[in-house]
Design brief:
The chain is mainly alpha-helical. Helix content is about 85%, strand content about 0%. It has one domain (about 5-125). Bound molecules: protoporphyrin IX containing FE (2 copies).
Length: about 130
């Protein structure tokens, strides 16, 4: 059975892939935009690529390691924080032209990686 966090990450990834691809197409057709170039890069890299990795890793790593994931609740918190952080930071760049609120979301996004690092490390340590 796939966990809620794994499924959430895989479905999020697919949504960011489609959004990122069409934004890329828009960039190609409409031309240069530094902000939208950045939004496109991060929707694809933090959204599509990273979230697919998180979704698959939360499912596969415990099976490779041979012990259950340290915490499903932390993985769900990671799902929430990674999505809120990414949507907030790209939304902030598009609608607020950056600033403190955008930076706060970027900090949430950066902090969310610690949840993944901690959970995977504890799982690998068999705890
Ligand atoms: C339909 C799919 C895609 C299209 C049409 C597309 C198109 C574009 C375009 C037009 C640019 C702007 C280039 C420029 O003005 O310098 C760009 C930049 C970029 N794209 Fe995509 N892209 C697509 C998918 C992806 C994917 C899947 C990824 C990553 C997994 C990706 C990563 C990037 C990155 C990192 C940049 C910024 C590069 C830089 O710093 O100049 N793109 N893309
Ligand atoms: C908390 C997460 C992250 C934050 C807050 C962040 C923020 C930034 C910022 C501020 C820039 C410079 C933009 C500029 O000077 O115009 C940048 C560029 C870039 N970042 Fe990130 N980043 C994050 C994560 C990542 C990750 C995980 C990847 C790759 C997997 C990545 C790939 C890139 C690339 C390729 C560029 C150059 C793209 C471009 O603007 O053309 N970033 N990022």
């Amino acid at each position: 059975m796939i966990s809620r966090a794994s499924l959430g990450f895989v479905l999020s990834s697919v949504a960011y892939m489609v959004t990122g691809a069409f934004l890329g197409l828009y960039l190609l057709l409409a031309g240069e935009s530094r902000d939208l170039n950045w939004v496109h890069a991060h929707l694809n890299l933090l959204g599509f690529v990273s979230m697919m990795i998180f979704g698959v890793a939360y499912h596969a790593l415990p099976r490779f390691i041979g012990s259950p994931l340290h915490s499903d609740r932390l993985a769900e918190l990671h799902l929430l924080a990674a999505n809120a952080g990414l949507l907030g930071m790209v939304g902030g760049v598009v609608f607020l032209e950056g600033g403190a609120v955008t930076a706060a979301f970027a900090e949430v996004e950066a902090a969310s990686t610690l949840l993944f690092a901690y959970n995977v490390t504890m799982t690998a340590a068999n705890r």
